[in-house]
Amino acid sequence: MENLNGYLVVSAILFAIGTIGVLTRKNAIVIFMCIELMLNAVNLTFVAFSRHLGHFDGQIFVLFIMTVAAAEAAVGLALMIAFYKNKESISVDDVNMMKW
Asked: Other C-beta atoms within 10 Å of 13: how many?
């Protein structure tokens, strides 16, 4: 078995970068990309623990997370297209003023 600490450190760094990106950016596309980065960090943790413990439970969770991430990307892109059509901007600050 390989060292689990390296995988967990990389996962924590990726998750921290994603969290900082979500909290500091105003562009909706960049925020969605940071959320995807956070989900991939969680996936890396699940796979690392799954391999370390010798069970396939973590890899099954990864499949579910990837399914949710794909659905989130599709719905998020549809919302961004609809919002851009109305406001011609995808800035998060403009979402508060949205009146359909």
From this structure: 11
Strand positions, DSSP E, 1-100: none
Q: Which domains are seen in the chain, by residue range?
A: 4-97 (1.10.287.3510)
Reading the block at residue 18, the tokens are 């994603």
Q: Note the pTM of the prediction, 2 decimals.
A: 0.80
> In which band, very low, low, confident or very high, does the pLDDT at 76 lie, cut at 50, 70 and 90?
confident
Encode 17-28: b = buried (16+ Cβ within 10 Å), e = exposed.
ebeebbeeeeeb
For residue 27, the SS3 value is strand
**Own/partner pairs, 95-98, CB within 8 angstroms, 24+ separation:** 95/28
Whether residue 64 contacts residue 52, with contact meaning beta carbons closer than 8 Å, is answered with: no
Beta bridge partners of 27: 91
